[in-house]
Amino acid sequence: MIATVTLNPCIDKTVTVDHFDIYRMNRVQVLRTDPSGKGINVSKALHALGVVTLCSGFDYTDGTPSPLVTDLDALGIPHSFVPVKGALRLCTKIFDRERKHTIEINEGGASVGGKDVDAMLERVVQIAKSSSYLTLSGSLPLGVGADFYKRCLLRIHKHAPNCRVVVDAERDVLLSALEAAPYLIKPNLDEFEGTFQCKINSIKALDTAAREVLNTYRLSMICISMGSDGAYLADAENAYVCEPAKVEVRSLQGAGDSMVAGICMALEKGLPLHEILRYGIASAGAMVMREGTQVGSYKDFEKILNSDLKLRQYFGGK
User: 2-8+37-89+110-313: which CATH architecture?
Assistant: First the structure.
């Protein structure tokens, strides 16, 4: 089983316009509202791909029926949330069709108390005991220290050593988690540059910086998604780069999460490095074909996976 943890879930409100103009009225072409969050998106994508998964994290309910639970129950995805007081934050995404660009306006979310944080830590450890992989994804709500993912990793290493942890975060949260040696990290390029204070202007520069992080923090793998330039994946011996799938893009929201799902699926299958990247690219490609934060279908994933993806092994600039 592949488990996912989302501490700062949300409602994604995706507005699609033909061409966003900051000085004039913009007419909405498509409007979608989806219960969401990075780990939740990973579990939804895994479920669509036929992989057994379980969602965990905080669920802000205010005593009312949870849209997260309602949505996951409708999809048939198991979940084990820690309920906390407060409302789900609203994250507004404006997708510009012409530019293939998303403007994000994300709320911070409600604060969480210390007892809830301790309960969540214990829940993560218990879930890890029955999981082959577990993802820690996204930002942390107020009241949760930047070292929470690190605390999870240390406890998992001790009490669930067979569970491998994937971290998708940035800056202080990621740097803290790296101190406890996750199995794999997957920042996007902007997050990588911001976290490690570097500027990447070529694949050679990316490979050099990524390998320094890989070796310094004893990672097994590192993946960096690069938007329209595809993704990079490396372990201690090899590195691969793959262009994105050639599909019609209807939304970019959740593409990175779907990539994590494809990567985890391939890891659980024990596939080689280049196939792991292909699975990630195919899963992300299937998702961007859908409006809003909808996951891609297995049919689209399989079609992309079997297509001529532009993947190449990277030999340090050779």
Answer: 3-Layer(aba) Sandwich (3.40)
